[in-house]
Every structure is written in structure tokens, then in C-alpha cells.
Amino acid sequence: MAQRTVVVASGVGLHARPAKLFTQAAAGTGLGVTIAKGDGPAVDATSILRVMALGVKHGEEVTISAEGDGADEALDGLVELLATDLDAVKPA
Amino acid sequence: MSDVDPAALLAPDAIRLAEQAADKTQAIRICGQALVDCGAVEAAYVPAMLEREESVSTYIGEGVAIPHATLAGKEAVLRDALCFVRFPAGVDWDGAQVTVCIGIAAQGDGHVEILAELAQILLDPERAEALRAAESAETVLAMLTPAPEDTPEPTREGER
Known about the structure:
The structure holds 2 protein chains of 2 kinds.
Chain A: E1 2-7, H1 16-28, E2 32-37, E3 43-44, H2 48-53, E4 61-67, H3 71-82
Helix pairs in contact in A: 1-3
Chain B: H1 6-9, E1 15-16, H2 24-37, H3 45-55, E2 59-61, E3 64-65, E4 81-93, E5 96-105, H4 112-123, H5 125-132, H6 137-144
Parallel strand pairs in B: 1-4, 3-5
Antiparallel strand pairs in B: 2-3, 4-5
Helix pairs in contact in B: 2-3
């Protein structure tokens, strides 16, 4: 299982729009991706409600994990997303 | 988790339980007006909420949307606040049926906990139904107030 730990850069934390963009990207990988805050339990990274329920704030650390072919590349993309202030960028 | 007081974020007069909207644009305007009326934002915040909705839908599931503004709207925020607006007849939200809108006005991240609590409620079908059916501002506020000693597990599938 591939795993990465990253500090959430979005000024408003990982909820609302940043959570939506992140969960969409996680779903787009087609892999089983999970996300955990700190030492907390891992949750389905494609569920906006589960991600919002984590209550991740700006500057907090999350760990994302994925399994399957291309998991490393997929996580690299998601890490980049989390390390960006998603509240500031324009949608693609 | 923190010292944020949900009652300070969600004023009783920002809880509206019986609104009607023909479409989501009108629903967002009503939410925006609720935030204006409780002194949380200037009128300029409302168009920024509509602009945000254009770029990314704020529908989060379980009949709930969380309209809020783009970064451009932040300057119109006077204080961090939420509003809770219920549309008993429902509003079409890009094909989804929305019954509850929780409008957000925020400069900081003090509202993240209350939104996390909201998500916890919506993950539980019974509590989600209870929130959609809430008949009083007190019930809404009590449901959204995070219980400090009772942090629910976000999921049961965490261990592998």
C-alpha cells in the first residue's frame, strides 16, 4: 500500500470546496483511496461527507493511502492538490 | 476540540425553518440575505456566493447544500457566521433535492468543527432525517453543537 503524509494548505482547511475538489480527484484515480487525520482512523477519500467529518483545518497533517496499479502516481497527484490552497485556485 | 461556540456562529435569527425557493439561485439569495440580516456579511457577499456555486456545486449529499462565497467575497464578511435555512418543499439542485442549506460566511476556520459535526450527522441516516425535519431553532443548534467528550468514530473501516 502506498502512503503519503501531507500538510493541508487550503486556508479554510479541508472542507467545502477544497473537500469537494479533493474527493473528486480521489474518485478520479479509480483506486481505493483513504485519508486519515493525524493518528485517526482512515476514511474513504472519495466521500465528501467522510472527508468533511474529519474536520481538517489549515496546517494540519493528513495521511493518504492507496492500493493498486499506479497508486504512487495517484497519491503524488493528490498530495500536490492538498499542498495547494484549493480555495484560491480557479477550477480547471 | 476548540473553544468555538456554535451558538455564536449560528445565531437564532439566522435559523429559518420554512422558506420557499423556486430554484437554487433563489435559495442561495435567501441564505445570503439571512447572513446579511444577522449582520455577518455585507450585501456584496451574496453575488460572490452565486459566483462560487457557478464554479463548484456546494451540494454535499443527504439533501444538504452549504452555499458560501468565493475568496472575493471574504472582504464582505463582517464576522464568521452560519445560517440554517430549511426549504420544506425542497429545491432542485442540479438534479438533487435540497431541503437544508447551511450558508457559510467565514474569514477564519472556526466553522470547520461545526461543519465536521454536520457531516457526522449526515453520515447517520437517522440523525440526517432528524436534522432535515427539525422544527425549532433550538433543536438545530443542539444537533450541530459538537459534544466535546463524545467524538464519534468517522468510520468503522479504519483498521485493516
